[in-house]
Design brief:
single chain; 352 residues; alpha/beta; TIM Barrel; Immunoglobulin-like; 2 domains; 6-stranded parallel β-sheet; 6-stranded mixed β-sheet; binds zinc ion
């Protein structure tokens, strides 16, 4: 069965002209695909922080993917599937690396090559070529070997809000430097186009996404821990951060999570809330008579108990005790159906 999607999701529309001229044919296989994305930082024997994995653990993860018939794809391949209906292998997974640490090149790349896996690496320009980060030559080598190199800004600053000392013009100028400027710098030095962005700290909003689209990027990865589908906006791709304690069992659990797509979420994903936010609400979809037996919500990474569920309207809501303080907030919902399938969704909004 073929689904003809003229506009699968507003956020995935790159060019209106293109859609009018050539509607994208999406096969049922692609429509049903679940894409988990995993994110590594340093791959080193010296485990300095919560985001360093040993080369030995990294190898065990790759072995796990191989034993369980996962097929790593690049961000180019995912975008080709979402935007052009290109085919994907079964059980796709996307392996990403942030910050372009030299240890990724030294310790992860040989393992990727051994397994024949391609990955997507995100570099920020200010540190390229430093003692512990890759050089432009090494980034170019990655591209030559079929990996993707994306942009992770120029200085790794929080792009979702101005600095305290920054007025509107200066903030806008910084956004241009950190997106368009960094993109051009990497492209000039590696000799190929950079199309994919990685939000520093995972922070994004509608304003930043609009700038990225104008700048020529076609995707943006977050740190919202949830799987993706073809319906997931390409500028809000969820990822699981891999930690030193992510054993194969924990990795298996992350990769087993199923996606749900919420409707009418308030505040919506990526929203910049100007007026005080006192409530959160969303409608959970009715898919295959999905009947939720258990629901859990995590607010600011902590479980909240006072979540209201209305089975008739399928509305999930949560009232905050007082208006939300200014800041950027990530929330997650976990839901289980009668067959114990586990679904999850994660999103982010910003309170001014
Ligand atoms: Zn980073």
């Amino acid at each position: 069965m073929l689904l003809c999607v003229s506009c699968s999701h507003e956020d995935n529309v790159i060019s209106e002209t293109k859609l009018i001229n050539s509607p994208v044919i999406i096969t049922q296989e692609i429509a049903n695909t679940v894409l988990p994305v995993i994110a590594y930082h340093r791959v080193s024997l010296a485990v300095k922080n919560d985001m360093t994995v040993t080369p030995e653990l990294f190898r065990r993860h790759m072995q796990f993917l191989s034993d369980n018939h996962y097929n790593p794809i690049t961000m180019d391949q995912w975008c080709d599937a979402v935007l052009d209906g290109r085919e994907l292998p079964e059980k796709p997974i996307l392996i990403t690396f942030d910050d372009a640490w030299k240890s990724q090149y030294k310790n992860a790349l040989p393992v990727l090559n051994e397994f024949g896996y391609k990955a997507t690496f995100y570099a920020y320009t200010d540190v390229i070529g430093n003692r512990s980060t890759m050089t432009y030559n090494q980034l170019q080598n990655l591209v030559n070997q079929g990996h993707n190199v994306g942009c992770h800004s120029s200085t790794h600053s929080n792009l979702a809000k101005p600095f305290k000392t920054e007025n509107k013009e200066r903030y806008n100028a910084r956004l241009i430097r950190e997106t368009s400027g960094a993109k051009k710098t990497i492209e000039k030095n590696i000799g190929s186009t950079v199309k994919h962005f990685c939000y520093p700290y995972g922070y994004y909003n509608t304003n930043l996404i609009a700038i990225l689209k104008k700048t020529g990027f076609i995707s943006g990865v977050t740190v919202n821990p949830a799987p993706n589908t073809i319906e997931s906006p390409l500028f809000k791709i969820g990822r699981y951060i891999i930690a030193p304690w992510t054993t194969e069992k924990k990795l298996k659990y992350k990769l087993s999570l199923l996606p749900i797509v919420f409707q009418n979420t308030e505040p919506f994903d990526g929203e910049i809330c100007v007026t005080p936010t006192e409530n959160f609400s969303t409608i959970l979809p009715e898919v295959n008579d999905l009947c939720y037996t258990k629901l859990k919500m995590y607010w600011k990474w902590k479980k909240t108990n006072d979540v209201l569920w209305n089975g008739e309207t399928r509305m999930l809501s949560h009232s905050f005790n007082k208006p939300v303080e200014p800041g950027i907030y990530t929330a997650q919902v976990h839901a289980w159906d009668t067959k114990s399938n586990h679904y999850t969704y994660a999103w982010l909004f910003q309170q001014l």
